[in-house]
Amino acid sequence: MLLKLLFTSAVLEAHYDEDTAWLYLDWKGRQDLAQVQAVGSRILAVIEQTGVRKVLNDNTHITHTSWELVEWVSKEYLPQVGRAGIEYVAWVQSPLLASRSNIDRMARSVEQKPLVAIFGDVASAYTWLSSVTVPVG
């Protein structure tokens, strides 16, 4: 991965992977709903500016999350990024058991695009995201 840092915050480092033309989002620390919502607006702007269609969403470094946050992501945020053009999200789970069960429930509740696939490690997520083809037009 040839990563270009786009921005950093208390909860996220956002990168553009120049080799693959997708976003690499490295979430970290305690995930607070208000902070994630603010960062989410920045990510939407990046999606619209770059035209990326894929995201590698890495939760490996998260130390805490909540069902309230996961529910917002599944019901509001993922539909927004889908409308902005994201087709595929490779989601790397946090090692935290509570976070894993929340993310599994979130992935089952996504009704439209983007397609969200859940992985236990970055390498598997990268391989899958590399293999999926973005529809033309």
Describe this structure in words.
A six-stranded mixed sheet has the order 1-2-3-4-5-6, with helices on both faces. The two termini are 26 Å apart. It has helices at 33-50, 67-84, 97-109, 122-131, and strands at 3-8, 12-17, 22-30, 54-64, 88-92, 115-119. The chain has one domain (6-131): STAS domain (Transcription Regulator spoIIAA). The chain contains four helices and six strands, in the order βββαβαβαβα. 31% of the residues are buried. The protein is an alpha/beta fold.
Brief characterization of the structure:
The protein is of the alpha/beta class. The protein has four helices and six strands.
Q: Can you tell me the CATH topology?
A: Transcription Regulator spoIIAA
Number of strands: 6
Low-confidence regions:
none
CATH homology superfamily name: STAS domain
Detail the topology: elements first, then pairings.
Elements: E1 3-8, E2 12-17, E3 22-30, H1 33-50, E4 54-64, H2 67-84, E5 88-92, H3 97-109, E6 115-119, H4 122-131
Parallel strand pairs: 3-4, 4-5, 5-6
Antiparallel strand pairs: 1-2, 2-3
Helix pairs in contact: 1-2, 2-3
